[in-house]
Amino acid sequence: MLQDLDAILLARIQFAFTVSFHFIFPAFSIGLASFLAVLEGLWLKTGQQRYHDLFKYWVKIFAVAFAMGVVSGIVMSYQFGTNWAVFSDKAGPVIGPLMAYEVLTAFFLEAGFLGVMLFGMEKVGRKLHFAATCMVALGTFISAFWILSVNSWMHTPTGFVMGDNGQFLPGESWWDIVFNPSFPYRLVHTVIAAYLTTAFAVGGVGAWHLLKDRTNAHARTMFSMAMWMAALVAPVQIFAGDMHGLNTLEHQPAKVMAMEGHYQSHPEGAPLILFGIPDSERERVDYAIEIPKASSLILKHDLDAPLAGLDTIPEEDRPPVGIVFWSFRVMVGIGFAMLGIGLWSLIARWRGRLYDWRWLHRGALAMAPSGFVAVLAGWITTEVGRQPWTVYGLLRTADSASPLDAPAVATSLVAFVVVYFAVFGAGTWYILKLMAKSPHPGERGVKMGERGPIRTAGITPGPTQNPGDPDSLPRNRKEAE
């Protein structure tokens, strides 16, 4: 049976599976690191213990999410050499240095200060610890900066020259590569999405504890902060998404055609198809619910502006319409639902019922995982919409894969599925277990063992010896030595 499968399709499924698992955790840790910095800053400024308690409550969750993000990212990167060796060979001179910069700047910065943030609260001064927390938050942003630069270059490649051996080589300026045309839009849209993902996760946890005890001061604080984020940032994200869409229309029109479900060109204004069932064989959207000329208004700011359709794109260069069409609607639908929750919270806050409006709390709890679904739907729209290219318009996916047989790729795919669901499923369960516990005064934060953190490169200190305790003295000469 495995002999009949397509090795390239299996390799794409494997990469999509691993990158989807991976991105859930960075999307959470990027926003959560900044949230921790805000909490600690408020504690230092106001001296209110509840901010300190919430910091220690959420830093435990951050530690687990950050660790799973690092592990899943390392595993994912190996696929460039195993399943996509041709792509790595051809695009390596451009994307390799950018990914190395991510390690040398962001990862080293995070690793250097993470231990201080997790274990140094009682060992260094408050200001130094706050600086370490800020450095970890900055490191997560820098990491997103470099990775999104790499990804954006694959969508809008610039600043390169083609070598005699078919490789993409850096041109005269690295800045043209780093700041490629789609990068600023993708960076803003993705980072804001990470902040909203965290806000709704925090808001969902706060709502859960308010439903159990509406007088819980810690739950009130986290819920209020999350709802402010939803109310203020969701409209900004919708605007940023619109700008990103206009940039995509300029550089990747076929993707926007698939997102909109426009199989045919519309010379006198294109409709906005809200829902429907794309039929690529007949090149139409069945049972379409649409608003006449609204797509032209959104994309061209003119009701009568003409919009080209997929009939202007060669069939072999078209992305899969069905997946892109629906994933885009999932992302947009969740975005407007987030806006709705934010506006609802403003009404509740204005009426003085933010902490006892139980239907609002139920809605926020239901929306707790919405950010994760939205970012996955957004990435599906972006990456599937780029097909059939890995480097848009220049290197096809079919020409990027390693010369592997289908059984080899299928075997590793099955292994990834089993291991990922076991390991990261357990980690996710543990995070949910931590969230289920109510924050309380005197939170302990990340616990250390009796001997403290392990000194990997040095000597792990033994227990403190007490002359009055016979168990602390060496039992023989060899142990004493």
From TrEMBL:
Its main location: membrane. GO terms for molecular function: electron transfer activity; heme binding; metal ion binding; oxidoreductase activity, acting on diphenols and related substances as donors, oxygen as acceptor. GO terms for cellular component: cytochrome complex; plasma membrane. It comes from the Bacteria. Keywords: Cell membrane, Electron transport, Heme, Iron, Membrane, Metal-binding, Transmembrane, Transmembrane helix, Transport. It is a multi-pass membrane protein. It holds the Pfam family Cyt_bd_oxida_I. One of its GO terms (biological process) is aerobic electron transport chain. Residues 440-453, 472-481 have a biased composition (Basic and acidic residues). Residues 440-481 are annotated as: Disordered. Signal peptide: none annotated. The chain crosses the membrane at residues 20-45, 57-78, 98-121, 128-148, 187-211, 223-240, 323-347, 359-380, 409-432. Belongs to the cytochrome ubiquinol oxidase subunit 1 family. This is Cytochrome bd ubiquinol oxidase, subunit I. It comes from Pelagerythrobacter marensis.
